[in-house]
Write a structure and sequence with these properties.
Aminopeptidase, 2 domains, 11 strands, globular, binds zinc ion
Length: 400
């Protein structure tokens, strides 16, 4: 139907719409922000690799927060999204979902490496691909092993077994359309690590990281250095080291982003500037991060396992799970019916409250009977370390 302007009001409305549609203001608004997803590896009950004085999860978080802070203060048209901003456990799959739900344009995952050999050191950046060396495969296996901390990993990860070499064959036949961009960004990062932060260059590598595989955008996984090398740990645990690494990642991102914009025909280079390491990070940022971290305990430091996930499992422990809550309960919460000395673990975003902890199944079963009137739905669960395992599996281990 042809448009008619039978009243002056309609004509004015038409003019207004036409103005909004073609004005520079609306064109600017239509230009989508570049979405940068920042992923600090591990967190909560998953500490990642543990060193003598620090834990991987805390280094990852501090560095990623510094990167995000630099981007937010110095770049325009970039939206920063974190997978975690505090010390919480997040499943791998959920990290990739954060990227996909936010339509990420780049995904950066930060980790710290660990090796049996105390002399290994240096920084490396991974993109998705088939590992060409055993060392690269080992890194991917160690980082993917966190999957095993999740209850329903067999279904959630479609049979992918982080510890089986066979599971990694899928990466050989995978067409990753984001690979070129991922590699170019990874190269910028390594150049910055070597040039500005004076780190030893272990290069750009490929391996099958689940979190990279599931993120539908260019993505990199950075191993800042080795926590198992005491000198490197001292550097990575220091504010100077963390700031240098964060600036290196940030400056590499500026290069990547400006290049990306040029290809699309617009130029933000004037807005997005590289920042020298000497530029101070606001005190509140470092203070906020420090508040959220607790130092490694003396005991954990002594153990210093290559990766938490690869420790030889200790004895299974049984507990009685009495209830689940969406939020953390107060000690005197009515739902706890006066029970004291409760413990809880977090799973699927829920707080699960438990009573007792014993390697003797019968003792916990006795507790279950005693509490049956108060908590008729309570049931026994089993843990090996921080990992929940099926009760029958725990009994099998004990009967070996
Ligand atoms: Zn890690």
């Amino acid at each position: 139907m042809p448009m008619e302007f039978n009243s002056p009001t309609k004509y004015l409305v038409f003019l207004l719409c036409a103005f909004l549609l073609f004005s520079p203001v609306s064109m600017y608004a239509q230009k989508k922000d570049f979405v940068l997803v920042l992923d600090a590896g591990h967190g909560g009950r998953d500490p990642g690799a543990i060193g003598r004085i620090s834990k991987e999860k805390n280094i990852n978080l501090t560095v990623i927060r510094m990167v995000g802070d630099l981007v937010e203060r110095n770049m325009r048209n970039v939206k920063v999204v974190y997978t975690r901003k505090t010390d919480v456990f997040i499943p791998l799959e959920q990290r990739a979902s954060v990227a996909n739900e936010n339509h990420a344009d780049m995904f950066i995952s930060v980790h710290v490496n660990s090796a049996k050999s105390k002399s290994a050191y240096g920084a490396e950046t991974y993109t998705l691909g088939l590992a060409k060396t055993q060392a690269n495969l080992d890194v991917a296996m160690a980082e993917n092993a966190v999957i095993l901390l999740e209850d329903d990993y067999q279904t959630r990860y479609k049979g992918f077994d982080p510890n089986s070499v066979d599971s990694y064959i899928m990466f050989e036949f995978m067409m990753d359309k984001y690979l070129d961009n991922s590699i170019s960004f990874a190269t910028y990062i390594q150049n910055q690590f070597v040039g500005a932060a004076k780190r030893y260059d272990r290069g750009v590598r490929q391996a099958g990281f689940w979190v990279l595989h599931r993120s539908a955008c260019p993505s990199v996984l950075i191993e800042l250095g080795f926590i198992s090398n005491y000198n490197e740990e001292l550097y990575l645990a220091s504010t100077t080291g963390q700031r240098e690494m964060a600036h290196a990642i940030y400056n590499a991102f500026v290069k990547y982003k400006n290049n990306h914009d040029r290809k699309l025909g617009y130029n933000h280079a004037a807005d997005n500037k590289e920042v020298a390491v000497s530029t101070p990070v606001p005190a509140e940022t470092t203070a906020a991060i420090a508040m959220e971290q607790e130092p490694a305990t003396a005991e954990q430091s002594r153990q210093a396992p290559a990766k938490q996930m690869q420790e030889t499992p200790d004895q299974p422990v049984f507990k009685l799970q009495i209830m689940t809550s969406a939020s953390k309960l107060k000690q005197n919460d009515a739902g706890l019916k006066g029970l004291k000395d409760l413990d809880y673990y977090q799973e699927g975003g829920l707080y699960k409250y438990t009573v007792g902890a014993d390697t003797d199944y019968n003792k916990i079963n006795q507790t279950r009977k005693e509490l049956k009137t108060k908590f008729p739905d309570a049931f026994i669960i089993a843990f090996v370390g921080d990992k929940k395992i099926p009760v029958n599996e725990a009994l099998k281990i004990l009967n070996r």
